[in-house]
Amino acid sequence: MRAIFRSGLVATIFAVLVIASAGAVFVEKRLDDPAQETRAREISEGIRCLVCQNQSILDSNADLARDLRQIIRERIVAGDSDAEVKTFLVVRYGDWVLLDPPFKLRTAILWLGPLAFFLLGGTAVIMFLRGRGSAGDVETLPLTAEEEASFKQISPDDKDELPK
Amino acid sequence: MRFRFLAPVLTFSAIAVIMWYALFNLDPSEIPSELVSKPVPEFSLSGVPGYGPDLSSTDLKTGKITLLNVFASWCVACLAEHPLFMELKKQGNVEIYGLNYKDKPDAAASWLKRNGNPYVRTGMDEKGRVGIDFGVYGVPETFVIGPEGKILDKIIGPVTQDIYEQRIAPLLQGNNS
């Protein structure tokens, strides 16, 4: 009974902590217009946090991420389009801030790299399998005349009698 | 055909070399700056109380190469580079301007009182908005600014003697000679 009570208490404390930390991401003021707030969130989701690098600023608790979320809201209220808001950030931090970077000469490796590796790996696999196939063929090659002769010598037509 | 067994060995070696290079020679926390070779963003800030006049973008068009150092009293790495800036001020090689990033005026003033003031002018960027215009994403960062107010280079993290000699001094000499 006491054990149940204790685990219940632990679960409650844990739940409170989880809820509190989840709420901590959005302590800032939201926009009054729900449509604009949704747009702000959608843009934030695609902006990379400069401090934590592999998080979007929507997921990040960093101070700078909060500032950037606030700036995105301000730009939206000022009447910027989604593209204009992103340009505002790209001018300051470069394509680097976009989690989905545009295809350019500088980002070509990023986009084409995996495809190149896939093709390279695929070619290697095909070559390997072909090599193995031909190795199998070698084993079933017909005997040469010489081999056949020596085989006949040690194994004459009469199977029951071994040569002496 | 005889050396085909070397293919996996060579592939592994190539990958190992690339990864070794990336691990020791590339810094993932160093984000390339978009603002290098562009003019400084427009701004106007009031100074740290008691420490020099206000700072605005026009103050950085001095006709010679200057440094703009982003610092804060809460920034530990700023203490590491501070003695070098004090030394540079003493030598008089280069003027340093201070952008005080997200700090309280009192805290900034007492920090400068305790550690010394290497700056010609300071600006208090209390909300961090000017910092964002400069593409600042951490403190300290130091901008090398050209005679016409154009950003020549940006140093992320504390400026060390090595960085000064390799990246800042050549720019200073190139301009003054």
From TrEMBL, chain A:
The keyword Membrane applies. Pfam families: CcmH. Keywords: Cytochrome c-type biogenesis, Heme, Iron, Membrane, Metal-binding, Signal, Transmembrane, Transmembrane helix. It comes from the Bacteria. The keyword Cytoplasm does not apply. The chain crosses the membrane at residues 108-129. Residues 14-154 form the CcmH/CycL/Ccl2/NrfF N-terminal domain. PANTHER family: CYTOCHROME C-TYPE BIOGENESIS PROTEIN CCMH. Possible subunit of a heme lyase. Belongs to the CcmH/CycL/Ccl2/NrfF family. This is Cytochrome c-type biogenesis protein. It comes from Sneathiella marina. The lineage of its organism: Bacteria, Pseudomonadati, Pseudomonadota, Alphaproteobacteria, Sneathiellales.
From TrEMBL, chain B:
Its main location: other. SUPFAM superfamilies: Thioredoxin-like. It is found in: Cell envelope. Coiled coil: none annotated. The chain crosses the membrane at residues 5-24. Keywords: Cytochrome c-type biogenesis, Disulfide bond, Membrane, Redox-active center, Transmembrane, Transmembrane helix. CDD domains: TlpA_like_DsbE. The keyword Heme does not apply. Residues 34-173 form the Thioredoxin domain. Belongs to the thioredoxin family. DsbE subfamily. NCBIfam families: dsbE. PANTHER family: THIOL:DISULFIDE INTERCHANGE PROTEIN DSBE (PTHR42852). This is DsbE family thiol:disulfide interchange protein. It comes from Sneathiella marina.
